[in-house]
Amino acid sequence: MNNVRANFSGSGKPRKRIATRLQSVRLRKMLENGRAIIDLIGDGKEKQLGDYIFDRRYIVSLVERILEKSGVMVFDASVLDAEGNLVLYTLLDHCRDLAENLLADEESDGRPTTGGEAFEDTSEYRLLSRVLMWAADPEAEISIMRLIKLAFDSVFRRLVFDLPACRGSHRLTVNSNELEMIDLGGGMPTRREGIVTMKDIACRPLGILLEGAVGAGSRKENTKSVGASCFAAVNDDHLSFIRRDDTPLFIEATLMNHTASDFIFLYTTSPRGFDDLPATFRIEKTPSGSMAWSYGATAETLADNLSRIGRLFF
Asked: Given 116, 142, 162, which residue is the final one in a domain?
């Protein structure tokens, strides 16, 4: 992360663009692995409802996959914020130890859960219940969900507070918020550096976000500089956005018209959190703020969500 900070503060534009692109890719991988862990936990909760046949091998595989994704997520977080890696790796080790103890303590006869005994009385059900508590309990001192929250707190605290003011090559003012942008490829293809208008923005997520901020179809942006408060790294289908004020907001969004790839992620330190977001968002409180995810939805739903975020926060 120190290298990223140095690159942002340097004067070489190609170097800054490369550093920003590397940071953006690393953050996207971290988000991808965080989503994968949450999906794995969700799969376990579905199995717990009793509508599926599973055995001990499924539970062991579930634990192994969660730990694998958690390890990669912590690595990504430690690259983005080296100062937080000791806490994260220590908690990850505790999670591994606890998982080993859970699997060692619970014995199973290997039978599927559709035998004569009640589903809730099977050893598989009991073991899966304990594994899901290990993975999903946000209040436990040792849990995968706590690991996720600490990792995102660590990274976004670094991104929002510790990085020096990022300077972009393109500028636009929307609703008295000055936005500086750096184009990582295809996000601003028709304009040279300097002041731009919303018509020049080819980054689909950013365009939808700003349309929501100023009103659909409106072009009321003011290009007069009033002092930078936001920074965005953009390409044609991906947005990394930071609003720097008393309640910092981070937005990460991809809109490729692929349900498996498209998502919106938000993080804020505001005590209010994300109370006004649509119901399609999964919202989690963290020790330092709140994070929210929307994924697995149609491109139209995600676009509507981005537009609403623009109206709510800008």
From this structure: 162
Whole-angstrom Cα distance, residue 83 to residue 23? 16
Strand 263-268 to 290-295 pairing:
antiparallel
Chain centroid to CA 71: how far? 16
Per-residue pLDDT tens, the chain, 314 aa: give them. Answer: 444 444 444 445 566 666 777 788 889 899 999 999 999 999 999 988 877 778 889 999 999 999 999 999 999 999 988 888 899 999 999 999 999 999 987 554 444 545 556 667 788 888 999 999 999 987 899 999 999 999 999 998 888 665 445 667 888 888 778 888 888 888 887 667 788 888 889 999 999 999 998 874 444 443 333 444 788 888 999 999 988 777 788 999 999 988 888 999 999 988 787 888 888 899 999 999 999 999 989 999 999 999 999 888 87
8 Å CB contact between 150 and 163: no
3-state SS of 33-85? HHHHHHHHHHHHHHHHCCCCCCCHHHHHHHHHHHHHHHHHHHHHHHHHCHHHH
Domain count, the chain: 2
DSSP assignment of 168-180 equals -SEEEEETTEEEE
Residue 155 and residue 18 in one domain: yes
User: Distance from CA of residue 298 to its chain's centroid?
Assistant: 18
**Do 77 and 142 have their domain in common?**
yes
- CA torsion angle for 242, 144, 299, 250 (degrees, to 10)? -10
Q: How many Å apart are CA 79 and CA 74, to the nearest integer? A: 9
Distance between CA atoms of residues 236 and 224, nearest Å: 25
Mark residue 21 as left, alpha or beta (left: phi above 0; alpha: psi -120 to 50; beta: remaining).
alpha
Rounded alpha-carbon distances, angstroms, from residue 269 to 19, 295, 307: 25, 22, 21
0.85 surpassed by pTM: no
Q: Find the domain containing 236 and state its range.
A: 170-313
